[in-house]
Amino acid sequence: MGGRRAWSSSAPTGNLLEAAASAGTAHHVVLSMVGAARLQAGYFRAKALQEEQVRRSPIPYSIVRATPFFESVEDMSRSTTYGESVHVAPVLMRPVSTDDVAAALAHVAVGVPLFGVLEVAGPEEYHLDELTAKLLAARGDMREVIADAHAPFYGAELGERKLLPDAKRPPGARNLRRVARPAVSPSA
């Protein structure tokens, strides 16, 4: 390949976009994270850069941002353990199951490109520290959960509402119904 395209500054995403363009891909779908546009540290910064590359590419695209997965809470608790305690930011979030995110991605992938963002979130709001304590207790883990506003989450220090979906966009299920209509009406 000759020179790098202007929209392919990050190697993995750039490589995918170049391969997709060469293959004639009609719709590029990327999974991102709620908060990527607001948090410019750690994993969130990487997801924001990936989103920007996808937006600048000539390939029609859809970005699906998910709130943290229920399944990631336990993993996160392992990374913030100090002795017999787990330090967790007391931030609000609406965790979602990986099954719901997979369903949203599948619906978006077979639909018309959004040229924008769909946010997918669970229906219930929790404080991350309280949810972590409930999860650990349910697993018989006796570590103390300490609410720590400075505890990192995927490399970022969070404000209380930074993991909630954008208030300007309806939560995932309503968005999903709007964009995931069947292409053909089912026959009776």
Report on this model:
This protein has 188 residues and is α/β, with parallel strands linked by helices. It is 37% helix and 16% strand. It contains 6 helices and 8 strands; from the N terminus they run H-E-H-E-H-E-E-E-H-E-E-H-E-H. It has helices at residues 11-23, 42-56, 70-79, 98-109, 128-138, 172-179, and strands at residues 28-33, 61-66, 81-82, 85-88, 92-93, 117-120, 126-127, 144-147. A 3-stranded parallel beta sheet has the order 1-2-6, with helices on both faces. It has a 3-stranded mixed beta sheet with strand order 3-4-8. A two-stranded antiparallel ribbon has the order 5-7. It starts with 10 loop residues before the first helix and ends in a 9-residue tail after the last helix. 31% of the residues are buried. The model is unreliable at 1-9 and 169-188 (pLDDT under 50).
Features of this protein?
188 residues; 16% strand; disordered C terminus; elongated; alpha/beta; disordered N terminus; 37% helix; 3-stranded mixed sheet; single chain
Spans where pLDDT lies below 50 across 5 or more residues: 1-9, 169-188
How many DSSP helices?
A: 6
Please state roughly what percent of the residues sit in beta strands, choosing from under 5%, 5-15%, 15-25%, 25-35%, 35-45% or over 45%.
Answer: 15-25%
Strand order of the largest sheet: 1-2-6
Topology, number of strands: 8
Brief write-up:
With 188 residues, the chain is of the alpha/beta class.
